[in-house]
Amino acid sequence: VDIVGYSREEIVGRHFLDLPFLRAEDREEFAREFAIALEEGVVPPVREFEVVHRSGEPVFVEAAFSLVRRRGRLRGVLVVVRDVTERRRAEAALRESEDRFRAIFENAYDEIIYLDRYGRIVDRNVKGENMVGYTFEEVAGKRITELTHIIAPEQMKTVVKLFKRAIKSGQQRGFAEFELIHKNGSTVFVEASICLLYTSPSP
């Protein structure tokens, strides 16, 4: 009851469809699921939904259901509810952050390449195709050491050295200049730096 702001006395004894924190648009579906549970003995799936706190604020909850039996007969449905509002807010904030990053990523004037810790290409923005002539599909999943048609052997040592130092030290590496080979055979002079992104305690 702390989740929705109502006392136990205000809840106990009421039909679940009359509970004040349930939204009107959810009541019909809940009624159908509970009818199936009681008539057919089918446990409703765990689900997340929105309820209304006494203050009027929306609260997101996760509900798990189990059937209550006595002497082999079905007597009711037990519902265990937990508040997942903060998790939902965190997920929404993460999605917003990812959307902002994606907008910057795709519209950047410079080429941006996203590599995993093993040097495989995970993502790349459109500018990269313009710079060296190869589509993302042509380089996706390849290790930088496999890009010998783009990075000349004498330049590969510099690129690999920069990458390994960044991974080992866990620090951003400064700018370095080297040459790339365009798909049409021309030389492209570039300046690059490495910035580490963390999705866990390790880079």
Features:
about 200 residues, alpha+beta, three-stranded antiparallel β-sheet, two-stranded antiparallel sheet, elongated
Total number of beta strands: 7
Number of helices, counting only DSSP H or I runs of 4 residues or more = 6
Helicity level: 25-40%
Q: What structural category arises from helix and sheet content?
A: alpha+beta
- Proportion in β-strands: 25-35%
Question: What gyration radius follows from the Cα positions, in whole Å?
Answer: 28 Å
H and E order: HHEEEHEEHHHEE
The strand order across the widest sheet is 1-2-3
Q: Assembly type of the shown chains?
A: single chain
Question: Which overall shape is indicated by the principal axes computed on the Cα atoms?
Answer: elongated
Mean pLDDT: 85
Give the low-pLDDT segments. none
N-C termini distance: 42 Å
Biggest sheet architecture: 3 strands, antiparallel
Summarize the structure.
With 203 residues, the chain is an alpha+beta fold. 35% of the residues lie in helices and 27% in strands.
